[in-house]
Amino acid sequence: MIALIDGEGDMGGAEIEAAAGGSTEAASGAAVEVSVGGAVQLECGGSERGCWGRVSTTGHVSPLGPGAPLSIHSVLYQQAGHYRCYAPEPDRLNAWRTHNVHLKVTGVPMVVAKNLSRVAEAGTLVSLTAEYCASPGATRVVWLLPTSRVVSPGHSASYGIIAHNDGNWADCHKAQLTIQEARIELAGDYSLLVWSGRGIGQITIRLNVTGGTMDSSSAFCSQQFISYKNLFYKRRYGGRAVK
């Protein structure tokens, strides 16, 4: 058994008995705010030694290792949350003091995607996925389609395109754009744009569609565009056409 002294300062004999490796709720702590991409040091309640862990929303503590202070460089939104330090009591054998720190990360929205390029067979369903984080929270989120139309989460566009958010982790969200039936005319760049009070974040995913043909209306527009280009080149360069 290890005696854990909860919090800082003179506890007046208030001790909590816990099995080795267990966790306790600290009565005191600190709040630290840092800008995304910056660096921060989390102090272990003034102790020069300590073991750090990160506390999940369910109370589970994941060990991070020793260090006093705990240094985090190039801070990400995903690193915001509750941290706990266990520091030895200098005048008591096998006695440890716990200190909680809540880390808040703020700044411009950050948008990332694992795959910046996708290939889909014509006629198949395809989903484009990105993750965005913002603190303060996002004020507007939209997908910009190759057709120059925009669609926000919870809404749909033509061709069976549906935008939605899948999951919510504190300041971070997963955004998905589902295309029910991939078509040649839907190939191109899909951009997710996120606004907040601190600025705007953006990511672009390129979709390539293979094995299909354009529908009649899209083919007509494409042919009209080529005809216009041919007329332009004929007038300017004396008959040279484009294909």
TrEMBL record:
Q: Which InterPro entries match?
A: Ig-like_dom_sf, Ig-like_fold, Ig_sub
Cross-referenced SMART domains? IG
Superkingdom, according to UniProt?
Answer: Eukaryota
Record-linked SUPFAM superfamilies: Immunoglobulin
**Immunoglobulin domain residues:** 29-106, 115-210
| Protein name per UniProt | Immunoglobulin domain-containing protein
Lineage, uppermost ranks: Eukaryota, Metazoa, Ecdysozoa, Arthropoda, Hexapoda
